[in-house]
Give the backbone structure.
Amino acid sequence: MTMRAPGSDLPIVLDDVSVHARAVTILDRVSLHLAPGTPTVLIGPNGAGKTTLLRLAMGLLRPSAGRVTWGGRTDVAPTRRAFVFQKPVMLRRSVAANIHYALAAAGVSRRAYADCTAELLALVGLDGLEKRPARKLSGGEQQRLALARALARGPAVLFLDEPTASLDPAATKTVEDVVRAAHGRGIKVVMSTHDLAEARRIAGEIVLLHRGRIVETAAAETFFSNPQTPEARRFIAGELLV
């Protein structure tokens, strides 16, 4: 249904990319290859550059140097990508109408709205709340609605910026279940998290950032069992990276 999309945007390749804001370097000569497959999880301390990297890969931000390509091209409109921000903005309308807005943007027939909306809200555990004003939902419910709204676009790639940062354990589990369901339907998930336990549960690939650079990239099992850099070993041990 709406959760399937061709992977024409993949691979997403960041080639020697830097981002500067005035005199501050946010990302420094970063190269990364995001291929179809298991979720890629970005970890690292606050200010490491995780959100900026996600925005670059989505196409929301232009690099100061280097280039980003989607499926080998630099001019691909972000119609097959969706982004869920850490603090999503709800439209001033009902839960169902928030989904309908995304379905319309994706070109879904109005005849399919009811079935698509019901499926998506059931997936994120919001079934029965179709008529509630979206801005009256709890923070966790709004995050789950933002996920459903993103999936309504039928993305090939789903970017999530710390989607469980302020959620309780039950809401966190729901979000993680949605991530797994999206991956199961062929959607490439790229997300950031501050939670190493969550990274262990979700990731197929780990990317550790520190001071705007990629310090280590590895399969999740390898990263956690045999980290190759001092920064990775310290971060896994719970020490502060400064």
